Amino acid sequence: MLADTLLHTADLPAADRFDRWRDHLSQTYVPTELTCEDTTDFTAAQRLIGFGAVQLLTVAHPALTLRRTPELIRRSDPGLLHLSLPHSGTVDVTSPHGTYRHRPGDVVVQDTSHPARMTATPDAGPGQATGTCVFVPKELLPLPAGDITEAFAGRRLSHRSGPGALLGTFLGQLLADTASFSPSDAPRLERVFVDLVTALLCHALDTDSAVARDVRHRTLVLRVKDHLSRHLHDPGLSPGAVAAAHHISLSHLHRLFRGEETTVAAWIRARRLERVRRDLADPALGALPIHAVAARWGLVRPADFSRAFRAAYGMPPRDFRARAAQEAATDS
């Protein structure tokens, strides 16, 4: 699985909690001045997942203020882009370009190479502010020169719609299912993340460079595949319906998949067969008729399904289920 570590200050002596959190934050983020009005019973948690050069964190903590000062920047400047996705509470960011308040659903863009102050405040009273943070080296992104914070000061970026929603879904899936990924997946996950962030930033800046066009192309492929995966159960899923859902022509859709070395219909069929194969190997679904398992994934013609399954896996679905059941009994 991917590297996944958790720090919860409740596991520490009360007198050590804030200092430990401050030191840990400087190690996993960048050197930062951290202040909190009440540190007597400081309760906070951070989960950290790394893939490639990207650091993904979830945080929950009381009201805090972080300052990235010129002195700290001179001392250590890893050149990171910091994206924050607040889930509860508010985030106020102050830089030479102004002060802006961000709320749940926003994407906060910060450049760690430039001074800034960030204050995260819970919704009401004591409680916790929560969110997801990501750090990525700026050198991996085709960003405009200069202070990135300035470029996005006052811009309202969302992780609930448009390219930001894809980014939010990607990060949420990683957090929910980290165990499904191996260390060898990290470089590919890094590339998907970089593409999604680039798409979000180019969309916000309305950039039409060759890089942006290429990223938008790959992002659209990801959006289409996500749509397909969520609708595999629908027997009416078709290239025409998918193209209409994404407001593109059918020929454009087919061109997208030409670069994937498959067709839309073949991609749908392969994913459906993978789902059926998984379910046929699941002892909990052993009483469900094979044709019903296939129908769950949009394969409603038994004869066509059987031929496709045998062509894909070298045996009829009935034989595959029997062998999977035998292997499960042997293992137990």
The 3D shape can be described as globular
The CATH topology name of the largest domain reads Jelly Rolls
CATH architecture identity of the largest domain: Sandwich
Give the total of domains. Answer: 2
Q: What structural class do you assign from the helix and strand content?
A: alpha+beta
* Order of the strands making up the biggest sheet: 1-3-4-11-6-9
State Rg: 24 Å
- Helix count equals 12
> What is the CATH superfamily label of the largest domain?
Jelly Rolls
N/C terminus separation: 24 Å
- What is the strand tally? 11
* Secondary-structure element order, N to C: EHEEEEHEEEEEEHHHHHHHHHH
CATH classification, class level of the largest domain: Mainly Beta
- DSSP helix fraction: 40-55%
What is the average per-residue confidence, as pLDDT, rounded to a whole number? 88
Sequence stretches where pLDDT stays below 50 over 5 or more residues? none
| Beta-strand content bin | 15-25%
Major sheet summary line: 6 strands, antiparallel
Describe this structure in words.
This protein is α+β, with helices and mostly antiparallel strands and 332 residues long. It folds into 2 domains: 228 residues, Jelly Rolls; 93 residues, Arc Repressor Mutant, subunit A (Orthogonal Bundle). Helix content is 44%, strand content 20%. It has a 6-stranded antiparallel sheet with strand order 1-3-4-11-6-9. A 5-stranded antiparallel sheet has the order 2-5-10-7-8. Strand 3 and strand 4 form a beta hairpin. Helix 7 crosses helix 8. The longest helix has 21 residues. It is globular and about 70 Å long.
